[in-house]
Amino acid sequence: MMTKEQFIKEIEAHKHEVMNKVATDAWRNKYHIMAPMGWINDPNGLCYFKGLYHVFYQYSPLDAKGGLKFWGHYTSPDMVNWTEHEIALYPDIAADVDGVYSGSAIIHNDEMYLFYTGNVKHEGNHDYILTGREQNVIMVKSSDGFNFSEKQVLLTNEDYPKNMGLHVRDPKVWEEDGMFYMVLGARSVDDKGYVLLYQSTNLADWKLLSVPAGGLDDMGFMWECPDTFKLEGKDVFMFSPQGIDAKGLKFHNVYQSGYAIGSFDESKHVLNLGEFDELDRGFDFYAPQTFINHDGRVIMYGWAGVPDAIEHRNPTIENEWQHCLTLPRQLVLKGDKIYQLPVDELKAMRQSEIAMNNLSLGEKKEIELFENYAFELNLEFTNSTKFRLTLREDLKLSYENGIFTLALGESGYGRDERSVAVDTIENLHIYSDHSIVEVYLNNGAEVFTTRIYNKEIDQNLVLEGEGQVNLVKWQL
Ligand code: FRU
């Protein structure tokens, strides 16, 4: 086992070796959160505390292909300007020696509490046999958000139902009516995904309340990163199930992330789930987490990446870094569907606004964009049943016969195309950064998040189709 001081030394030495490569890579993004070097995956511990937004994240500083996990740390006063801080949590005790895995934050009595999974691998089988792996729920607290108390192990394998295997993790904690609750994602010995619900009066002692959902035949073998919150008075259950088969245009990533509207039966502590749908139709979205902002907004960040997606080789690995997070998105419920809106705060990034109204799509149009790929576009369509937009060399966004498609050429590095059926297209809101695009359709009814690795800067947007469009562009 290594101490924090030993890790700091090793990470400093590695930084010395790779930082020049990372810092000079043209694919580093301008306004998406990335690890300073190495690998980033899930957003963790999201919260607003004493005037700052905190984003912790799964961080492998020493290996751009992923490896031992730490919690990296950024803060921001406004969700736009971010400050990097030293690593918040190191795998430096026996109970988390093979990784400080994902978890969440809760603010209570003016203190920040972080809950995470301590991963421990022993000799033998890491999935089923009781001795092969430990997944411990561990808590630390902090009165300033930067210095953390000693780690306290709260739950171990002994505390999980006996029919669960060795994958039980990713505590998400919240408070309701003076009581604390925690959900954990789990995989049973017969390879079904589950969620476990624990209850506590003091954040330290937890008891299993129920296994509110899981065991479904067509819902995968493991439910990672469970999260639950209310929108418009309805219970939303968000999770990242592994092992769902593709169905028509849906579920084409290796693993999925999505939600179902539930109704929670208070007497039996059972969550009856409605239909599951994915949150994002793009190639790069997984392990989202929400937090409830001080103004009541439910805000989500996702990992712009997918585990085990080796078919999408990210060329940044050679430059010693990989992946990023999505923009913060406000979640809104209309009917039983979640709409995702980039948070309003992001408007502060806008520079040099140019608006063009009533462009007829009948004849092909070329519009010059900006001298780099950090920009935002908003397009409002009228009478447009068919169109095609080409930008960034080979990114094509098209709509025809009720199907919207995002397609990539060489810049996709293996990402080809993804589609969704929509009755009409009212608008397209596009956030483009040096190596990622987020496309929001019809006020966030559908979202596509996709990494893109262009070799050249192509400043033209080519538009063709039917109907009219009002277009606004901003450099970011
Ligand atoms: C999801 C996940 C979590 C786990 C973490 C480890 O991407 O597999 O279940 O806690 O990543 O980095």
UniProtKB/TrEMBL annotation:
Name of one Pfam family that matches: Glyco_hydro_32C
Gene Ontology MF terms in the entry: beta-fructofuranosidase activity
InterPro entries cross-referenced by the UniProt entry: ConA-like_dom_sf, GH32_Enzymes, Glyco_hydro_32, Glyco_hydro_32_C, Glyco_hydro_32_N, Glyco_hydro_beta-prop_sf, Suc6P_hydrolase
Pathway, per record: Glycan biosynthesis; sucrose metabolism
E.C. number: 3.2.1.26
Catalysed reaction equations from the record: Hydrolysis of terminal non-reducing beta-D-fructofuranoside residues in beta-D-fructofuranosides
Top EC class of this enzyme: hydrolase
Location within or outside the cell: Cytoplasm
One GO cellular component term noted in the UniProt record for this chain: cytoplasm
Residues annotated as domain Glycosyl hydrolase family 32 C-terminal: 346-466
Role, per record: Enables the bacterium to metabolize sucrose as a sole carbon source.
NCBIfam families: scrB_fam
Family in the record: Belongs to the glycosyl hydrolase 32 family.
Name the record gives this protein: Sucrose-6-phosphate hydrolase
Organism: Turicibacter sanguinis
